[in-house]
């Protein structure tokens, strides 16, 4: 249970740090790339075995870790934009509602049964993302208002599905740290290639502020994934229960931190969205 609590804590810190980037005018992309380098280093330090770089490509999970790394940096940038433009609560709910995608994929990939209660929960989840995203002066529906939360929703769902898939079938417990480090290294490489490719049009802005922001993000980013893998490995609770407690905890803690630290003001419909989010998670997980 302590691993689950630590995952909730570090995951909530990520949304807060994204919000701080705006306040201190930190370049998000540069900080995110630095963050992945730091997270990779932390993962290698936590790996208890001997690190042999030549043997890593031979691991069963290697290609999957590379693909996951690409997805990580894409989703992280969208998540950062959502947190900065729409608020910490919106970003956290859109991210944590992503559990509905593994639920749907379970039907097609693992022949799991999706009953009426789960379907209702999924519909409520979609409504939750809408209500928590609607801000003041947004009485008229605008599709653009939901674009960022919806992309976070899809990307996070793909990440959750992949993490559970590799943890269950390919990654032994003693390689959790090494697997995480490889994912983060792949994300860092993708980011570096991107900024170097675009350096002719947009000069590089590597400075101490961006690097510091990346270091601040890298440590909780690594531990959010590492402790989630450790929690999923616990046999006393099902993965559905783990994801449920993890998602509810992050939604509530990140919302509280957004109100406490940034004076974010939530309207009644935003609170309705948060309430619906919690209800939908419980319906899908425990039906």
Whole-Å distance between the termini? 22 Å
Oligomeric state, counting identical vs distinct chains: single chain
Number of helices: 11
The Rg value, from CA coordinates, equals 19 Å
Structural class by helix and strand composition: mainly alpha
Q: Tally of extended strands?
A: 0
Topology as a string of helices (H) and strands (E): HHHHHHHHHHH
What can you tell me about this protein's structure?
With 287 residues, the protein is an all-alpha fold. The protein is 77% helix and 0% strand. It has helices at residues 2-23, 28-46, 62-86, 88-96, 100-109, 116-133, 143-169, 176-197, 208-232, 239-262, 268-286. The longest helix has 27 residues, at 143-169. The two termini are 22 Å apart.
List its traits.
11 helices; about 290 residues; mainly alpha
Write the SSE topology.
Blueprint: H1 2-23, H2 28-46, H3 62-86, H4 88-96, H5 100-109, H6 116-133, H7 143-169, H8 176-197, H9 208-232, H10 239-262, H11 268-286
Helix pairs in contact: 1-3, 1-9, 1-10, 2-3, 2-8, 2-9, 3-4, 3-7, 3-8, 4-6, 4-7, 4-10, 5-7, 6-11, 8-9, 10-11
Summed up:
With 287 residues, the protein is an all-alpha fold. The chain has helices at residues 2-23, 28-46, 62-86, 88-96, 100-109, 116-133, 143-169, 176-197, 208-232, 239-262, 268-286. Helix 1 (2-23) runs antiparallel to helix 9, helix 6 runs antiparallel to helix 11 and helix 8 packs antiparallel against helix 9.
